[in-house]
Amino acid sequence: GGQQGWRGESRGSPQQLAERYADLAASHSEALRQREEREWHNARLRQENARLRLENRRLRRENRCLFRQALLGPGPDKPRADPGEEAEALRAQLGRLQEKHRRALRHLRRCRAASGPEASGAEDGELDELLLEEDEQP
């Protein structure tokens, strides 16, 4: 015997029922172990997250401080750059900007020549002035 309905009634030999019960108990124990492991892992991740948030705050403060220093220049306790070096750097920068300006004007002149006289626009007066200034410079 032993082959009856499912509501608390036996469906197999006592040995089969004992094996099923042992399997269920083992599955339950494994599920509990995995749950504990996940909880432990999550707790570790929460701690790491908190540590990283603090580190991020510290780095943001440090970045703001460094950015302010870069904007404001050296403080009163730090020596300023040599005025001669600073002037030379500014002269070099001015030279680069003037060269870019000359190249842009030459490009505009070429574009204007390629488009012909019928393509004159409202900005032509200003462009003429710039081109004349460039022609007059040594």
Automatic annotation (TrEMBL):
Segments carrying the region annotation (Disordered) are 110-138
Question: Any keyword Coiled coil?
Answer: yes
Signal peptide residues on this chain, from the entry's feature table = none
The membrane-spanning stretches of this chain are: none
Q: Which domain of life is it from?
A: Eukaryota
Assigned keywords, A-Z: Coiled coil
Which InterPro entries has this protein been placed in? CCDC89-like
Per UniProt, the ranges with Acidic residues bias are 121-138
Record carries keyword Coiled coil: yes
Q: Which residues form a coiled coil?
A: 42-107
Q: What is the designated name of this protein?
A: TUSC1 protein
